[in-house]
Specification:
Blueprint: H1 3-20, H2 22-29, E1 33-35, E2 41-45, E3 48-50, H3 52-64, E4 72-75, H4 82-93, H5 106-109, H6 112-115, H7 119-123, E5 140-143, H8 152-156, E6 160-165, H9 168-182, H10 192-200, H11 209-222, E7 227-231, H12 232-237, H13 239-250, H14 256-260, H15 263-270, H16 273-277, H17 280-284, H18 312-326
Parallel strand pairs: 4-5, 4-6, 6-7
Antiparallel strand pairs: 1-2, 2-3
Helix pairs in contact: 4-13
Bound molecules: adenosine-3'-5'-diphosphate.
Adenosine-3'-5'-diphosphate binds next to helix 4, helix 9 and helix 16.
């Protein structure tokens, strides 16, 4: 290493140090905050709600992640089907190397989050600046960040984004159950009513949800070769059709022979909720994202569970909000199948 590189290295380290102490504390104290769901507080950073560690990672991503033209980025709000999207994308992109029915397919022994890393929870977490130069191409990556918060290289390069949206009613119920399972006991209870009120005010991780989805939705309309916008409910209804759409968009279209051989259905089945949920790694494993049990990533995996949780008043409130926020956007949801 040359002396210039050593100095640069040290400067980088110092910058990171400053980021994690004085600068960061000062930054946090200047941000609007609310009671957190998994951490004591959650902060409004660049227009969306985040935990402190996420903000730290986002700053680092904005500074150090340079998208390449071949990068494939999966984007979601938490609990909208990220795990499923990661499994499907990994299976599509790597199917020449790993045939879906292969006994040692990586999805049989690794949780999808281990195979498709989050920028903010794995790669740039804890002040790390990963060396991504040796990653196999295309780099299959994931994020919960809103589109507007992504570094310029994401917009300026030819990288592609797949966004999966889920109806806001089921997403809320999924978030609520997930938080209930993994919330530290020391933070005290978190009622459904309180969680719902926060959700309706936009206060959820990376929310408001309507802004998150609209950012990707509008870009998918403007630039359909850049952003593929998928809906959880449509994926559930017709997985094979949506899978083919995804494969085409990602640059890995299924050949006629593959279709005749049942590869599309095979991948859909391998990545199905029922199959993934029962794998040892997903029943007993831990830490695929951060330090919680993988089993909490699999609950019911359906459409319409909100009817079992929300009162008519809650439904009315959220319906009004979504109608108002999505007015004229052309974006709508199936609430039941
Ligand atoms: P429910 O809580 O409604 O069951 P995320 O992966 O973004 O954390 O989202 C979790 C939600 O997706 C959970 O919803 C979970 O059960 C569901 N899910 C996980 N794997 C799935 C799969 N393979 N197919 C469909 N849904 C899945």
């Amino acid at each position: 290493m040359s002396i210039t590189e050593v100095i640069e290295d040290e400067m980088n380290a110092q910058e990171q140090e400053t980021l994690s102490t004085e600068f960061f504390d000062e930054l946090l104290s200047s941000l609007p905050k609310e009671k957190g769901q998994r951490t004591p507080d959650i902060f409004l950073y660049q227009g969306f709600w985040c935990q402190p560690k996420e903000i730290q990672a986002i700053i680092s991503i904005q500074k150090h992640y340079t998208a390449e033209g071949t990068d494939l980025i999966l984007a979601t709000i938490p609990k909208s089907g990220t795990t499923w999207l990661k499994a499907l994308s990994f299976a599509i992109v790597n199917r020449k190397q790993f045939y879906h029915s292969q006994k040692d397919h990586p999805l049989l022994t690794s949780n999808p989050h281990e195979l498709v890393p989050f920028l903010e929870y794995k790669l740039f977490a804890d002040n790390q600046i990963p060396d991504m130069s040796s990653f196999p191409r295309p780099r299959l990556l994931a994020t919960h960040m809103p589109l507007g918060a992504m570094p310029d290289s994401v917009r300026n390069s030819r990288c592609k984004l797949v966004y999966l949206v889920r109806n806001p009613f089921d997403t809320f119920v999924s978030i609520y159950h997930f938080i209930d399972k993994i919330r530290p006991k020391a933070l005290g209870p978190f009622s459904l009513e309180e969680a719902f009120d926060m959700y309706c005010r936009g206060v959820i991780g990376f929310g408001p949800y309507w802004e998150h989805m609209l950012g990707y939705w509008l870009e998918s309309l403007r630039n359909p070769h850049k952003v593929l916008f998928l809906k959880y409910e449509e994926m559930k209804e017709n997985t094979s059709f949506e899978l083919k759409k995804m494969a085409e968009f990602l640059g890995y279209p299924f050949s006629r022979e593959e279709e005749e051989d049942g590869v599309v259905e095979g991948i859909a089945k391998m990545c199905s909720f029922e199959h993934l949920k029962d794998l040892e790694v997903n029943k007993m494993g831990k830490g695929a994202i951060v330090n919680f049990e993988n089993k909490h990533l699999f609950r019911k995996g359906g459409v319409g569970d909100w009817v079992n949780h929300l009162t008519p008043l809650m439904v009315e409130r959220l319906t009004n909000i979504m109608e108002q926020k999505l007015a004229c956007s052309g974006l709508s949801f199936k609430l039941l199948l």
